[in-house]
Amino acid sequence: MTAERADVQQIKDRIDIVSVISRYVTLTKAGSSYKGRCPFHKDDTPSFWVSPEKGLWHCFGCGAGGD
Fold it and tell me: Is 28 helix (H, G, I), strand (E, B) or coil?
């Protein structure tokens, strides 16, 4: 792992992904994950999911996702 990748991973490990995303998207708890309306497309139902355990987000409507 390069130093840059190590730095990025260290930041990801320290940041709460739900806190960051909830600054831009209204999230509702759904089991161990959170759901909301995707900010990347017109979304009438919550298709945007955030997994704090995995540190990932994904929209099942448009396919956008990341960590």
Answer: strand
Return the pLDDT at 14.
87
Question: With contact defined as beta carbons under 8 Å apart, do 34 and 43 qualify?
Answer: no
Range of the domain at 51: 3-66
- Number of structural domains, the chain? 1
Q: Assess whether pLDDT exceeds 90 at residue 46.
A: yes
Query: How confident is the model at residue 13, as a pLDDT?
Result: 85
CATH code where residue 14 lies: 3.90.580.10
Locate 9 and state its tokens. 């991973």
Give, in degrees to the nearest 5, the angle at Cα 59 between 56 and 24. Answer: 75
